[in-house]
Every structure is written in C-alpha cells, then in structure tokens.
Amino acid sequence: MRIDPYLKFDGTCREAFEFYRSCLGGDFDSAMTFRDGPPGMGVADESLDKMMHISLPIGSCVLMGCDDVPGFGPPTVFGDNFWVSLRVDSREEADSVFAKMSEGGQVTVPMEDMFWGSYFGALVDRFGINWQVHHSPNEA
Length: 140
What we know:
2 domains, alpha+beta, eight-stranded mixed sheet, single chain
C-alpha cells in the first residue's frame, strides 16, 4: 500500500504543477484535461481545458491534482482541497479498506471501475478527512 497526496485547485492546477515540477524536477506521468475525457461528462465548454488529472512522481510517491469543475463534487474550499490517496494491491483490498474507512463517514464516489482503468472510490471519513482508494491492475 502507498499513500499519495491529491490536491484540488480552482483553475490553477496546471500552473501549480508546472511550478512544483520546476522546484522538484521530474516529468508528469499524466496530464489530462476534461476535454480529454469521454463524451457526455456534462462539463461546460469553459471548463474543458481545466485539469481533470495530473500526476508528478516525487521519489517513491506521486503528487496528484485536478481543477474544480461545477458538477464534479463540492466547490473548492481552500484548506479542504486535498485527499489522501491510497493505492492498494488488489480489488479485494480496495473493497475492504474502503468499507472500513467509510464507516461513520460519507461515500462520495462508490468503488467502481473507471474509464481511466482504475478501480476507484472516494469518501470523507468520520473525522472529515477526504480519502481516495484505488487499485490499478497495471500498477500491481
């Protein structure tokens, strides 16, 4: 299991990650805008060039991020604009960890197969911390 930070921005994700890359070095593993997503996502034209996902490996971890887009989760509240992302080794482990972590909390995205290839879910635990759980078969 590995823990990675996931940051949410209000339209400045690309700029922030270019800054982090200039400070920390390395190359992006992925950089996907909402325009790159599947059709029918319901994203307004003015938001299509915002970042849907970007990742920058740093040592044995990955710094990840996205932009806030209306209709995709609650609006950005700075100080509450991050997730702890758990990368697990199997679907079974993902289901087990997700079930335990969500007890007394709130599921925001149920565990399911996603178009980018991960088995993924998100929750807010009973202490108010945002978590993501995912298993990517190609990373196992």
